[in-house]
Amino acid sequence: MLFTAMSGANQSLDQQAVVANNLANLVTPGFRSQLAQMQAVPVPGEGLPTRVSVAATGAGVDWTQGPVTRTDRSLDVALGDNGMLAVQTADGSEAYTRRGDLQVDGGGALTVGGRPVIGEGGPISVPLGSEVSIGNDGTLTAREQGQDPKGLAQVGRLKLVSALPGTVVAGADGLFRTPPAADGTTQPLPADETMRLTPGNLEGSNISPTNAMVAMIDNARRYEMQMKVISTADENAKSANSLLSLQG
Predict the structure, then answer these.
(1) Chain-centre distance of CA 232, in angstroms?
(2) Contact, 144 vs 129, CB < 8 A?
(3) Residue 56: is it exposed, middle or buried by C-beta count within 10 angstroms (0-12/13-18/19+)?
(4) pTM above the 0.70 mark?
(5) What is the tens place of the pLDDT at every residue in 236-246?
(6) Which of 18, 92, 189, 203 could disulfide-link to 161, CB 3.0 to 4.6 Å?
(7) Is there a contact between 37 and 18 (Cβ–Cβ < 8 Å)?
(8) Dist. CA 239–CA 7, nearest whole Å
(9) Cβ partners under 8 Å of residue 110, min gap 6
């Protein structure tokens, strides 16, 4: 009874953490709601075979597309179905995101969410102070200050990939990665030349604040119920000890 209630309380806390993370990313562009996945497992050790506990099996993802808003900002892009941008992580590996609010940092590097955006030859850089525009195939063109309006130069092309639901896994940093192979290594996805995006638009988070708040209340009540079961088990044990002492 104690093991069953304890595992349920622990997983309720884990679910609450997932819901809190979703709420924290309510306004993050392109964020996909994460889902806690649980599985019933037998209680280890001697006992009745009908007693089971619950264990986490991973984090799932809600792949429903978020609302798309027109911003008319030249560096905002909305990705098509199953499309993702390739970015470089802190360890130099490649990961993927649906986030489309691109920025140019002080060194001219194109970033999204503070991470360098990867192009055909690695991270993309643009001339400082230039006017950058993005085509629907991911091609970046720049016009430096003082140049003729027709003096556009191609400075790179975004690496766009196609990732069907289930082919990539979500990380704690909100990025998606390919599942590791048997030797623990991961292979980057190939660029999809047919993938298209919509410049001047931005996809929002697919999180429903109402559903998230309901889930948070539900998890809190479930946790309270499990703690009450633990308290009841403790009271039963004390009562049994009292009866045994009286018989002795």
Answers:
(1) 38
(2) yes
(3) middle
(4) yes
(5) 878 887 777 76
(6) 189
(7) no
(8) 24
(9) 102, 103, 104, 116, 117, 123, 124, 125, 126, 132, 140, 156
